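Predict structure. Input: Competence protein ComEA, helix-hairpin-helix domain, 206 residues.
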Amino acid sequence: MVANIDRRYWMAALILILLMAFFAGLKYGDHKNKDIDGESIVTANPAGEREAPEVSEVKVYICGEVENPGVYKLKDGARVYDALMMAGILPAADLKTVQPARKLQDGETIELLAEGESDVNSSADKPSLPGRPPTIASPAGTGLVNINTASAQELDGLPGIGPALAQRIIDYRTANGPFATIDDINNVSGIGEKKFAALKDLITVR
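Output follows.
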C-alpha cells in the first residue's frame, strides 16, 4: 500500500516537472522571438540614417538681358528673381518673360528676354503661313543673311530674331553705319551670347 502511494507520488512529481519544463521552454522561445524583432527594428534605423540628404542648393544658368551671364549657385527655394539680381538685370529686360516669382529648379537655364521679344522663341519655330515662304536676304550662292542689307522681315526669319529685335538691328545700322563684322551685331540690345551662337553661322556682312 505504501509502495503504491510512493509510486503515484513520484509519477505526479515527474509529470509536474515535465509540465514546468514545457512552459519554461515556451516562455524562453517567446522571449527570444521578441529579442529578434527588437534587433530587426534596431538594424533598420541605421539604414534610414544613410539616406541621401535633401538638396540644400541649386545651380542655374542665367543668360540674355543680364550684365554677367553664367552659372550661379543659390539656396534651395530661391526664386528666379533672386538669380537675376545676382546676374544683374539690364534696363531693356522684360521680367514677365521669366516668371520672376517662380522657384528655381536645379540645372535649369533662364533666358531673360528684352521688352517686345516675348514671342521671339515661338516665332522662330512657327511654320510659314500658306503662300508666304520665308525670305532671307543673302548674297548669291552663299545662303547667308547679309545683316547690312536685310529687311526687318528678312531678319525676322532668322532663329531667335523677332519683329522688335529685327527693327533694333536696322535702327542700329542706320545710326552707326554698316556692320564691319558679324561680331558687331552683339552691340545691338537683345543679342546675347546664346542668340549670337545660333546666328553666327547664318549671317554675313558682305
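The longest helix spans residues 2-49.
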